[in-house]
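Sample 3 of the quickstart, ligand flavin-adenine dinucleotide:
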Amino acid sequence: MAEHYKPVKYKAWELTLEERFQEYYPPLSEREAVLEANRCLYCHDAPCMVACPTHIDIPTFIRKIATGNTKGSARTILEANLLGATCSRVCPVEELCEGACVMRHDHKPITIGRLQRYAMDYAQEKKIKFFEAGKPNGFKVAVVGTGPAGLSCAGELAKLGFDVTCFEKKKMAGGLSTYGIVVFREPVEVSLAEVKNIEDLGVKIKTECTIGEDIKFEELIENYDAVFFGVGLGSVPDLAVPGEDLEGVVDGLDFIEATKVDKLDSIKFGNRIAVIGAGNTGIDCATIARRLGAERVTIVYRRSEAEMPAYHFEYQFALGEGVSFMFLTQPVEIVGKDGKVEGLKCLRMDLGEPDHSGRRMPVPAKGSEFVIPCDMVIKAIGQKKHTDLLGKLAEFGVKSTKNGYIAVADDTKRSDHPKIFAGGDCIRSKGEASTVAAVQDGKVAAAAIYRQLVGAPSPNEKHIEPVLSPVK
Ligand SMILES: Cc1cc2nc3c(=O)[nH]c(=O)nc-3n(C[C@H](O)[C@H](O)[C@H](O)COP(=O)(O)OP(=O)(O)OC[C@H]3O[C@@H](n4cnc5c(N)ncnc54)[C@H](O)[C@@H]3O)c2cc1C
Ligand code: SF4
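Result:
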C-alpha cells in the first residue's frame, strides 16, 4: 500500500462527532499542489491516463497545475469526466491511475486523486462554468436515475444540444454519491454541487418521481427519442436467517444514508455491532459505526481475507479505525431477547472447491456453532437486482443477463430495443461496479445516442474506448 494512503490517525476522544465525519484527506494547499505536480514526468502515452476508465488527460491537467493554470486544469478534467469532483474523492486510485503511475516503482506515485480534487475544488469555489447547453437539435432524451451514470449521460447530451429530462425516485439527485458514499469520503454538498452543474447545462431533474409507478415505461418510450436507464441496484437483500425482524437489525445502506442526511447525534447505533459482509458497504458501515462511537465493531464474512470484495486499502483503513474481522464465519441466526438483538449465531467455515465465480466455496465445519454477543446487526451483503424493472423491460424486448443485469452492447450501451440504453451498476454483470465506470458508461451511451439520432460521430468520442462502431 502506498505510504500516503495510510489512514489518518485520530484520537476519537479529542474530536467532536462532527469533526469525526469531516473529509479525512485535507485539501492540498496551493504550494503542496504545485510541488506535487512538479514531481510528474508528463509521460508520453501516460499509463495513468490509460488506466483511468474515463481517460482524463492526466499529464496535461497536472502540468496545468504546475504552471499555475488551475482553471485550465479543471477544464481538462471535466472534458473527460463531468463528475470529476466526486471521482477525485471516491475512485480507487491505487487500483487505477496511481497504481499505473511510473513513479510508483522507485518513489511514491503522484497523488493524482488529490491533485484532481485540488483543481475541482478551485473551479467550484470560483463558480467557474466551463460548458454551456449545445444548440438545440430537436431530440428529447429521458434519463432514469440520477446517479453518476445518469448524470454523466444527461450532462454530455445537454452539451450536444439534446433536451434532457432526468427522473429520480429519491428526494435529492446524485444516487449513491449523495446517499451512499460515506460522508468522510464525499460530503453531500460535493455531490449536490455536481448535480447543480448538470442542471446549469439545461437538464431538467424531476425528483421523487419513480418510473414504473409515477410515470409508466410506455409513456417514456413513446414520448422520448431515447431513454437511458441508470437505475443502479436496490436495497440490501435479506439474510434469510431466523431473527431478521428483531429490533436492532438494520439495512447497511439505510445506516449510511442516515449519516449523510440526518443529524449525527440523532442516529441510533449499538455498542457491540456485527456487520455482515466485507464489501464496500460493510467496510463503510463498520467505520461509520466506530466513528459514531460504537465500542466493538466486527465484520463477519463467510469467505477468507483473500476473497473479500473490499479493496486492500479499505481493509487497512477499517483496521486502522479499530474494526475487527472474523473471516470464514457464516451467520445462521440472529439471536434475540424481548424482541431485541442479543447475539449473532455463526458457524465456522472451511474453504472447499471453487464456485462459478472462481472463488473457493465456504463449507460449514461440523459442530462449530458459536454466538457473537452484539446489540446491533448491520446487513451489508450487496444490493438487490431490479427484478421488476427487468420484467417490465423484457416486455419491450430488452434482454437481461443470467445474473440479473440489463444486457447492453459494450460499445454503445444500447439494449435490444433501439431506443433503450443503460449504464452503471444496473449493467455491471461482470467486473467491479464503481463510480468512474458508471460515469464512462453514461458518456459512451450519450455518444451512441448522438450517433444514432444525429447520424454523425459525437464530438466527445476522443475520450471513449472502445471506439464506437462506424455510423450505419
Ligand atoms: C456503500 C457504498 C460505497 C461505495 N463506495 C464507492 C467508492 O468508494 N468508490 C467507487 O468508485 N464506488 C463506490 N461505490 C459504488 C458506486 O457508488 C456505484 O458504482 C455508483 O454509484 C453507480 O452509479 P449508478 O448511476 O449506476 O447508480 P446509483 O448511484 O445507484 O444511482 C441510481 C439512481 O437511480 C434511482 N432510481 C432507481 N430506480 C428508479 C426508478 N424506477 N425511477 C427513478 N429513479 C430510480 C436511484 O434512486 C438512484 O438515485 C459504493 C457503493 C456503495 C453501495
Ligand atoms: S504516469 Fe505518473 S509520472 Fe507519468 S504522467 Fe502519469 S502521473 Fe505523471
